[in-house]
């Protein structure tokens, strides 16, 4: 999930906590797929809700600061 997608969902009415849940589930799903191969079984790291919220808040703040200028 890129910043553009986070911003478009946020502008459509989702709050930052719901966006963090969506981001976390998509990110952890990608890691699960990567880890399914024997060679990459220790690759990557799952993220928590708190870490996902930090990513979402950073993207929203960056967008708001760019709109302010």
- The structure class reads mainly alpha
User: Average pLDDT value?
Assistant: 95
User: How many beta strands in the DSSP annotation?
Assistant: 0
Overall geometry comes to elongated
Q: Report the biggest beta sheet as strand number plus sense, adding barrel if it closes.
A: none
- Low-confidence segments, ≥5 residues, pLDDT <50? none
Distance linking N and C termini? 25 Å
Secondary-structure element order, as H and E? HHH
Radius of gyration: 14 Å
Quick structural overview:
With 69 residues, the chain is an all-alpha fold.
Describe it for me?
This protein has helices spanning 3-11, 16-35, 49-68. It has 69 residues and is mainly alpha-helical. The two termini are 25 Å apart.
List keywords for this structure.
mainly alpha, 3 helices
Topology:
Elements (H helix, E strand, L loop, with lengths): L2 H9 L4 H20 L13 H20 L1
Helix pairs in contact: 1-3, 2-3
